[in-house]
Specification:
This protein is an alpha+beta fold. The chain has helices at about 1-25, 30-35, 190-200, 240-260, 270-290, 300-375, 385-425, 430-459, and strands spanning about 55-70, 75-90, 105-110, 120, 125, 135-140, 140-150, 150-155, 165-175, 185, 210-220, 225-240. β1 (about 55-70) and β2 form a beta hairpin.
Length: about 450
């Protein structure tokens, strides 16, 4: 019995000792001590982590788009906010999780291990976002580095269809010093998966609508060595509502006002001043457009063509108004001359009638005096009858003179209208014809141009 009790006690001691020893190694520091991974150990961070230098290091890269911060057409700059993940194998790191209480992954500071020297070719500004200070290390040697970064990169933009354009901006990632036989750069996710993840985690898009994230591998040869790159292409479409409301519609409204100005009377100065005001408003919008679009472009933007053609049509309309106004003023001057000539003839006719009436009265008085003298000599026979006869003759002559004056007035009015028609046939008639023909040309040209420009925008 004593031997059995001692045997049982020995077994219990072994079990307790194994349990205590297993608890003592269940820490991340024990894993680091087992790997001899310290900040002073340069074996893990100075050289590429392979046991045989002929083995290439496989680096898997994954990029997810968080947000589109800005797309600046003037400077052709694309600023996305991305989440990048790099995964590679460190052949110097491995441990058995069963010996360390099932620990399969630990986190270590970034400066303790070698990292791939990947950089973005299009980046023009250093990233100032805070870095993730740790990396994950797995028991099989896989190292995972995750990083959020704001990329300020160049992008060759095509603003031909602005503001209904679709832009494609690239982010090219490759190694700075390692060739393709030393380090391979492979995509962790395919294009459809990266696009789906980006749409799910997208925080903000602003003016732009994210469409697709495509991934392509590209190899090129330089100095008889082959280099490998990954090209991430971000496809996005502009939301044109703001530009349509603030730019395209106002120009269309100004064009409608210019069309409506054809119904303003030509002989007034309001029409000319109105057209000049509308033309100045279009000039202000052209200055705003100059600040939006880049100075260099392969093709002339359609919106610039849209503005220039409308500006040219309105300028042509202004010149036509000046011509018509000149012809109408010339017509008015001719009418004024005819009116002055008619007034002068009226005054002359009135002077003649007044002189005739004065002479008639004088002759009447003289005849009365002569008849009275003859009556006295002829023993004053029938004086009353003769005076009545003379009065009747004088009244009839006065009525005839009035009728003659009215006929002359009608003749003068008829001559004036005939003269107006003749003058208008030379100036006013041409002004009306020019105005009618130009209005038809203007409406036809505007309709065709707007149909073509909007068709080009939509294709």
């Amino acid at each position: 019995m004593g031997v059995d009790m001692m045997h049982v006690a020995f077994l219990l001691l072994i079990v307790f000792t194994d349990g205590a020893s297993s608890k003592t190694v269940c820490s991340y520091q024990d894993v680091l001590d087992h790997l001899n991974l310290t900040t002073d150990n340069s074996v893990f961070k100075l050289t590429r982590p392979v046991l045989d230098y002929t083995h290439p290091t496989m680096v898997e890269l994954d990029i997810i788009l968080y947000a589109i911060l800005a797309v600046i057409e003037k400077t052709q700059t694309f600023i996305p906010f991305i989440w990048a993940t790099m995964i590679w194998n460190n052949e110097r790191i491995s441990w058995d999780p069963a010996q360390f209480c099932g620990i399969t992954q630990i986190s270590v500071p970034r400066d303790m291990l070698w990292k791939p020297d990947l950089f973005i070719y299009e980046m023009i500004q250093k990233d100032d976002s805070p870095l993730n200070p740790y990396m994950y290390v797995s028991h099989d040697g896989m190292v995972i580095s995750e990083e959020d970064m704001k990329v300020v990169s160049t992008c060759k933009m095509d603003v031909h269809k602005f503001p209904f354009d679709t832009q494609r901006c690239n982010i090219t990632i490759g190694s700075a010093i390692h060739y393709a036989d030393e380090m391979r750069v492979l995509p962790f996710s395919n294009s459809s998966r990266a696009t789906q993840f980006s749409r799910e985690v997208m925080k903000t898009q602003g003016e732009w609508e994210f469409l697709q994230l495509s991934i392509a591998s590209y190899n090129f040869t330089f100095n008889n060595r082959q280099w490998e790159q990954l090209i991430y292409t971000f496809t996005m479409r502009r939301r044109p509502l703001l530009h349509v409301i603030n730019f395209l519609l106002p120009i269309l409204f100004f064009l409608s006002l210019d069309l409506a100005s054809f119904f303003i009377a030509d002989h007034r100065g309001e029409k000319l001043g109105f057209k000049v005001t509308v033309l100045l408003a279009i000039s202000v919008l052209l200055l705003i457009l100059n600040d939006i679009l880049p100075s260099m472009s392969n093709k002339t933007p359609l919106i610039a063509t849209y503005c220039i053609v409308i500006f040219a049509l309105m300028l042509l309309s202004l010149l036509e108004t000046i011509l018509v106004t000149y012809l109408m003023e010339k017509d008015s001057a001719s009418l004024e001359k005819l009116r002055l000539r008619g007034d002068w003839e009226d005054r002359q006719e009135k002077v003649k009638i007044d002189n005739y009436n004065t002479e008639e009265k004088r002759q009447t008085c003289c005849s009365c005096i002569c008849k009275v003298s003859d009556g006295e000599k002829q023993h004053e026979m029938l004086p009353v009858a003769e005076e009545v006869n003379n009065s009747i003759q004088s009244g009839e002559s006065h009525v005839l003179l009035l009728i003659l004056a009215e006929l002359k007035e009608l003749q003068k009015t008829l001559n004036l209208h005939l003269g107006c028609r003749e003058e208008r046939g030379q100036s006013g008639h041409w002004a009306a014809r020019i105005n009618r023909v130009f209005f038809i040309f203007y409406v036809t040209t505007v309709s065709l141009f707007l149909s073509l420009i909007f068709t080009e925008w939509n294709t």
